[in-house]
Design brief:
Distance between the termini of chain A: 71 Å
Radius of gyration of chain B: 20 Å
Number of strands of chain B: 1
Order of helices and strands of chain B: HHHHHHHHHEHHHHHHH
Helix content of chain B: over 70%
Oligomer: heterodimer
Order of helices and strands of chain A: EHEEEEE
Structural class of chain B: mainly alpha
Shape of chain B: globular
Largest sheet of chain A: 5 strands, mixed
Strand content of chain A: 25-35%
Number of helices of chain A: 1
Distance between the termini of chain B: 48 Å
Number of helices of chain B: 16
Shape of chain A: elongated
Chain lengths: ~130, ~400
């Protein structure tokens, strides 16, 4: 069964190290970031019909303007992921707001069997 | 640019290696602990993938050299043990190292092509899968010589199938672990010293890689594994392959299983990024605690390729070291210690019920030795429930 390829174990070890080096370079220097921004939730308010949500969040990290903000700690935020925040919404998410609490408001929607939050407004809390 | 700390990359790879070397320890268990104490969302996803990659390669060491199932390597036990007995343990490790790395690279290259194809192929074949498995069983039984042995094999296959069904339906953690430890590890550990007294000399490795087709089939199976409902483990998928690759053909079957392992993880990342779900536990944890999308997929691919390459490198080096040391150590003593350790781990992980599974599996595992029939029929524990799934569900 099959094609034949002759590689000695020593040659293969060199191939493995080269592959590891190549992938390490990609890992460190790939231009795109993993789009992620962490918001620790302090309080959550969900409307009676479950269609509207607002919660107070503490900004823990900062992301560049124009990118998508997501809250991915599903257990902490009732499977709500935040998507679709536009550049205008980032007013509170500059580096200065790290450690501060912000209020995020939006509507829940179903997408690929998950519930996402289309955030409309984000501003400093209090 | 991502903030990835080199030290953390190294730490996660080492944790994957540790999980692979210690029988009964799965990356998911380590991940659960890590998530409690470390929660940098950018690093955690990459870290778990790094751990999974190293683990995928290293887990073949206990499977080959100690006959202990790690992760999804259950089906690798038979060919691995067979090759070890023939003094080809090092060669078995080389086959696994080559296969996991080739399968990873091929899966990453082919994933844009295979992912849209797999679902239609599966739905086309779905009505016939039960029959295909039945044919595979007939081929397995046909390998025994004489009608008496065929009947005994059918008996063993049926018992294993019923037992496998009960075990897979149970809600204990990692149910296949006690079953396969009982089937293969404990009987092998008890007889290890005797088997190797004859002085099996490990042959040097300059194996020709003539197992590219089993690797390609493994890549395809790994892709299918992400879409098959009701199949608990990709190891179950490997039984389909017995129609094409005989279990007795140790080298090619081992290559095939190793490829399924690696490609299953790669395709789990792809489905996580494209469809938002993953059937590999560790990738599901990544999805839950970090972000996986098509834009970030190359980073995850790079992390997996890096750690599986390091894992494969260490698999070769550790195997070489084991094969030179194996003649100097008291295998009888080591076997006893490992057997006691396995019983302890199984009790800790799953309590008395897991221990009961282990005892029953050990008794069944001795049947082929007593009746002098192939241990391959114990695979009924995976094939039987799969057949039941396709005919009943």
């Amino acid at each position: 069964m099959g094609f034949l390829l002759k590689i000695s174990s020593k040659d293969f070890e060199i191939i493995l190290l080269l592959l590891a080096l190549f992938s390490l370079i990609v890992l460190f220097f790939w231009p795109q970031e993993i789009v992620y921004n962490r918001v620790g939730l302090a309080q959550t308010f969900v409307s009676r019909d479950g269609e509207y949500i607002e919660f107070v969040a503490e900004v823990e990290s900062y992301q560049e303007e124009g990118e998508v903000l997501r809250v991915c700690r599903a257990r902490d935020c009732l499977n709500v992921h935040i998507q679709g925040i536009t550049s205008g919404d980032f007013v509170c998410l500059d580096p200065k707001s790290i450690g501060e609490e912000v209020l995020i408001r939006g509507e829940l929607r179903e997408y690929r069997s998950r519930r996402y939050l289309d955030a409309h407004q984000v501003w400093r809390y209090g | 640019m991502m903030r990835i700390l080199g030290v953390l990359v190294l730490a996660f790879v080492l944790l994957g290696i540790f999980a692979g070397l210690v029988p009964g320890l799965h990356p998911n268990s380590i991940a659960a602990i890590i998530l409690e104490i470390y929660d940098d969302p950018q690093m955690i996803g990459i870290g778990l993938v790094l751990m999974l990659g190293a683990y995928t390669a290293i887990a073949f060491i206990p499977a080959i050299f100690m006959g202990i199932p790690e992760g999804q390597t259950q089906v690798a036990l038979l060919p691995g043990q067979r090759m070890l007995k023939e003094g080809r343990g090092l060669e078995a490790a080389y086959v696994c190292a080559v296969s996991v790395v080739f399968a990873t690279v091929i899966s990453m290259i082919l994933s844009p092509l295979l992912v849209p194809m797999v679902k239609p192929i599966y739905f086309f074949l779905k009505p016939y899968l039960g029959y295909i498995l039945l044919i595979a069983v007939l081929f397995l039984l046909k390998n025994e010589r004489g009608s008496k042995k065929i009947l005994l094999s059918l008996f063993l296959f049926t018992i294993s199938a019923f037992f496998g069904f009960i075990v897979l339906e149970s809600d204990i953690i990692d149910p296949l672990f006690p079953m396969f430890v009982g089937f293969f590890s404990i009987p092998a550990l008890i007889s290890t010293a005797n088997d190797r007294e004859e002085g099996v000399v490990e042959k040097c490795v300059d194996t020709k890689i003539d197992f590219l087709i089993p690797i390609m089939l493994g890549v395809l199976m790994g892709a299918i594994a992400d879409f098959l409902p009701g199949i608990s483990t990709p190891a179950q998928l490997a039984v389909f392959s017995t129609l094409i690759i005989k279990l007795e053909n140790s080298e090619k079957f081992l290559a095939h299983i190793a490829s399924i392992e690696a490609s299953h993880a790669v395709f789990a990342m792809v489905t996580a990024a494209s469809a938002g779900f993953a059937r590999v536990g560790t990738i599901a944890m990544v999805l839950e605690n970090s972000s996986v999308d098509l834009g970030s997929l190359p980073i995850y691919f790079a992390a997996f390729l890096f750690s599986i390459s390091i894992g494969a490198f260490l698999l070769l080096r550790i195997s070489k070291s084991i094969s030179t040391q194996i003649k100097k150590v008291d295998l009888g003593l080591i076997s006893k210690i490992v057997a006691i350790y396995l019983v302890f781990v199984i009790f800790i992980k799953g309590g008395l019920f897991s221990l009961l599974i282990l005892i029953i599996a050990t008794v069944i595992g001795y049947v082929p030795r007593v009746l002098k029939i192939s241990r391959t029929h114990l695979m009924g524990s995976l094939i039987g429930p799969s057949i039941a799934h396709f005919f009943i569900v």
